[in-house]
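Re: the request from the purification team.
They wanted to know what the chain is likely to look like in 3D before they choose a buffer screen. I agreed to run a prediction and write the result into the notebook, where they can find it.
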Amino acid sequence: MALILWTAIYVKHITDLLAWVDDTFGWDFEDNLSYYAPYAEFYPSRQTRLLEYWDEIGFPHEKPKQLWGTELLILGFMVDPNAMTITMSSEARSDLVKAIRIFAGVGNRWTLKEYQHLGGWINWSLNVYPLLRLGLSALYEKMAGKTESNRRIWTNKAVIRELLWIVEKLDVLEGARMLENEDWGLADADVVVYCDACPTG
């Protein structure tokens, strides 16, 4: 894919192409559209030129993957480059909240695999809600050192408290703003704790 992308940029002069794994993406001006006959659709001109180049070299592609617009669903997130925001769809957020509430029930015992699944799901949401990373401490601590995927683990008060905190914040946080992303500084802290680390472990 790297060689194909390189030739598209430097031989075919299709500018501003980027790639992530096997997906190619870029930008174009709103009114800069060209007709791509094989799909009987208008696409941004750079995208059309790339599709034509792929046809020329016999590189396979599919119409359903040729997405474009002012908002796109990318890896499950709504990306709006004009508003410079990344958000979760209300359905995705609702599904996550529901799963967390079920998991955080008092007296529950879940397998390590289920802990890992929920931790991964919440970790995925951190792309949009980076401030929620604090709510994973107890969950990861509970999994630490365990290797048997079907072993059941009690959900303790710390895990429940942190998971419900995540749910509470998911209801009010908007998502990530690409140019004005939030970060907590010392001025925002309720408590400041200083510590040191032993250089020998």
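For the purification team: The chain has two domains: 2-69, 86-181.
Please add any questions underneath this entry.
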